[in-house]
Amino acid sequence: MNTRSFGPGSSTPPIKPFDMLDHGLYALTVVAWSASWFAIAQQVGTVSNEVNLVWRFGIATIIMFGWVFASRRPWRFPLTDHLRFATLGILIFSSNFLLFYYGALYLVSGLLSVVFSLASVINMLLGALVMREKPSLRIVAGGIVGFAGIALMFWPELAARGLSGGTLVGLLLCVAGTFSFCLGNLVSGAAQRRGLSLVSMNAWGMLYGTLWSGVLALALGRPFIVVPTFSYLGSLLFLSVISTVVAFAAYLTLLGRIGGARAGYATVMFPVFALLISTVFEGYRWTPWAIAGLLLVAIGNVLVIRAGKR
Question: pLDDT tier at 116 (50, 70, 90 boundaries)?
Fold first, then answer.
């Protein structure tokens, strides 16, 4: 997953340092996905979640295949690769989001982002178990500090809501969605190591994800409708183009360049920017807990980024 070089007499490869492209991909992923939580809030409850995903990834699929053909990337693959693409589509481009959309019925948008930030830890665990990746102590420390900061930011709300009833259901749905996302990371990383085109892989994955969501919508009897309002259509286009096509391409490229542990840690920053958006558009009020948590998240983020510059 990483591009690494071995030094004389070394038994394990050193961590690849961040370069300018890595920083750019990291920033793009964080900003695009941070804003996506607000966009998702504009869609939940207006159209069924399964149909929302059909429209979202249907648009994204068209754009991705246009990219494939315009750039003359490969689009024909053997059946074994299509099985990988279908798995990627079901895990990342359907089930992951569907679980979070349903979780949004029980949790506020900020908490959705917090749960999704667990992807960094789950990526580390899956990498250690499956890929045999060993994260550095600095990356682990950065993750711990970052999550401690997130806990401070949301502790008052978590303490007030508790873990009973709808809150527990929402948390379980979002944890399952995060786990689905991380399993998809493994599929993507393995496919990239086989030399498969990232753009082609995403295009086919989004197609299969769209088809899977469509099958679920038909099986559940969901009506295929669109709400002709500015908020719905605007959020749909943002989620389809920026949050899906652009951000996923950036994130999966980052995953292949620097590994799951550090790429996944980008998700720890999402709650911070999601709260900044909520401050502007939803009147979120910062508390001493939130300010202290923001500082810890920032420190943890710096630890992880600078882990590759030793």
Answer: confident
What b/e readout covers 49-79, taking b as 16+ CB neighbours within 10 angstroms?
bbbbbbbbbbbbbbbbbebbeeeeeeeebee
Q: What is the DSSP letter of 269?
A: G
Q: Which pLDDT value is given to residue 273?
A: 84
Report how far apart the first and last C-alpha atoms of the chain are (Å, whole number): 20
CA distance 212 to 121: 28
How many Cα atoms within 13 Å fall on the side-chain side of residue 240? 22
CB 112 within 8 A of CB 277: no
Report whether pLDDT(27) > 80: yes
CB neighbours of residue 15 within 10 Å: 21
Q: Write the DSSP symbol of residue 12.
A: S
Are 264 and 182 within 8 A, CB to CB? Answer: yes
Domain limits, the chain: 48-309
Instruction: Determine contact, residues 61/269, Cβ cutoff 8 Å.
Output: no
Mean pLDDT of 137-165: 74
**What does the block give as tokens for 259?**
């590994």
Q: Does 6 score more than 50 pLDDT?
A: no
What DSSP string describes 146-204? HHHHHHHHHHHHHHHHTTSTHHHHHHHHHHHHHHHHHHHHHHHHHHHHTT--HHHHHHH
